[in-house]
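Researcher: I've been going back and forth with a colleague about how Agenet-like domain-containing protein might be arranged in three dimensions. Neither of us has a model we trust, so I'd like an independent prediction. The organism is Effrenium voratum, in case that matters for your notes. Sequence below.
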Amino acid sequence: MREEEAKMELDPERPRVLTLKKEEEALLRANGQAQLLLLRRLASDAELLLEDSELRLSSEVPHAARCAELAARALLASSSGDAVYLREMLQATAGAVQDMPQACLLDVPGGVDPKELRRFGDLVAAYLRPKEPIRAKTKLTPAQAALCKQLGLHVGQAVEVRYGEQWFHATVVGFTELGTVQADYFRTDGSLPECAGGEIEVGAIDIRAAQTPRPSRVIDSGKLLIMGERRARLSARLHAAAQAERRAVATGVASSLHTKEQSLAESMLGLPKDGAILDEEMDFSVSCLELPPETATGHGLHRLNQVARVTDAMLEVLPGGRRALLGGDFEERRRARSLLELLPRVGPYGDLASLPTELQDWAVHLRVPNSALRAVRAMQRQAEEETGTLIFWLPPGSSAPRRRELEPLENGAAVEAQYRGSWYKAKVISSSGDSVQISWDYDGSLDEVASDQIRQDGASSRTAWLRSCRVMLALGPERCRLSCTLRAMAAAETACPELWSSEEAQEDAQTELLDGQGEEDFPYSLEVAALEQFDAPWLGAESGVLRTVEVAAPCAMQLVPGKLLLAGTQLDRERAKEYLQWAQESRKDVTNFGLRAGGRLSVMDADMREDVLPVLLPEAQAVWLTLDRIGEIQKETRTLLVFDTGGGSLLAGGRRLLVCGGTELSRSEAAALAREVPSGLAQVAEVQQTAPRRTDPMEVLNTMAWPQCINDWGRLQKVIWAGHPKLKPGWIRVMSKSQKQEYYLRLSDKETTFDISNVLAT
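Model: Here is an independent structure prediction for Agenet-like domain-containing protein. You can compare it with whatever you and your colleague have in mind.
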């Protein structure tokens, strides 16, 4: 029996069927089937079908269905705090599981919650436990049967046994001829007894039927199975090892003192004794490195957390703060090491002598006039936190690379110099760095003024500002650097108006944004949009709409007086402006129905757009979507939510919500959250909507002019095919006039198909 069950578990080609509990099926269907979609991404070679409280898994690829079943069981087990029970335990070599390239094992002594590891990406994790041995049915002797009847107990019954003055939960496994009962203690970690036939033997006076519920299982140790994409999987493995060491130090099992001995986390990960790895290791790998004393606490520890964000590397500081686990590919590890070596040399205000070569391609330079230094430094900490970057400053007199040189001030040149806020004529005597010696025309006296207080006749103020400036460095991923640079440019304009937003500054601003690189190397551009089309007071208020659209589009945006700065690809910028316009229109002329009325907004092509998911809500659901609730959903899913008037597709008694931006998965999650009634509120009777009658497309087409283009077909989808099954986002129906048969067209690449099974929404 055991061998047959183990053989079925290991069968590489057998289809699997999981019978689901009610709460397990609800978990897979919740949030737009987000967890089921996760399983499909993890088991891309297998087919997963959820119906009638069963999850069916099959594949023609060997071991694909087996991996899919294990991933599904791991997801369900970790969600309920349980383990995956196997008849044949998985075997691993150096953490890798045979026949399962997307899985790894880690022996955890304790302190790791598998569910918490999901934050590292597309993965599932759960502890493995062996199934209880299959025992033959116990045959009791007449004496044992009499004892069983006398005590009112039977094999398998939950009981309590006394040890000293306390009672402990156990399970009856047998009886003896001597009048005692054999039992196994109940283990909260789900493990099995080490011996068969009962680990304890107690007399009748020390055993009783269970009188209290058994405690909940808390499984945080054992063989941890992690399944998922390679980077996410190994990142979770690294974090689990570090978390286990923190638990060991907290409980006194391990020491936090800085020693030369290998740490618990290093031994769990199988690192060499010296913690070193080959520099040629290009794939994701883990190493252990020593940290300088300055990074152990306070500001230094905060900087360490920023290093991980800025370099995309995994950095887990071990207890004591003097040693850390570093994970990532070759470039990420190289950048992280270079930045860690650099941090102790950074001044208290972010001053830096020079930038290491390893970080040159991860940084952008920005010229900040001395007049704007205070304004830019004031927003530095917030910009670092919100954009995931680090900001440093090069020494005074440093120049940004690949910039157009400003024409030098020649001796004897006629200029204007600033004195007590006014400009007066003068002549240049000599210039050096940030200061200029001049002679005032009105009395011939000599004076020395800052370079930014000098301007030549006919030259703009920005030229004077840029003569005396500091160079700011923003380190981080490409889009993060873009957002940080735009924030600094906008902050500089508070002290130096139109420094980067004036018409004459457009070319220089584009160069500054791209750090002097050619536009052919980067797809991003700077756009200065006038605020006439937007409600400036509303846009600049604390409503958060600007930041929401910035994340959803995604497109970096900043407000300056009278203008809106946008930085991103052309598509990003167009979507950002459109989303802002939609958010503004949906709030205009608000009726007694509030935001859900949609204001003046009506998006006719919402069903045709790949970046928008229209959601039809009954009034009983839409009424709970207050501004605060919408803000929570937007923040959690990184999308923009606006109501409109329906675009011609709204049924009576309903509202249409547009979920904009983000990814397809995040839009589905936002739609599911929008349909939920907030917890703690009374359940509202669901408004039943009568499904519209399914139309005959040819009959409808015979009553109108035949559509001439894709836009016409898209606009008439709800009219021609009213009541028909919904298609996947991005697909529309088109009728072939010659064949009188409908086919399906994908808007992104114009691919067509006559097979509706390939395009139906799940």
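Researcher: What would you highlight for our discussion?
Model: I'd start with this: Confidence is low (pLDDT under 50) at residues 682-691. After that, consider the following. The chain is about 30% helix and 25% strand.
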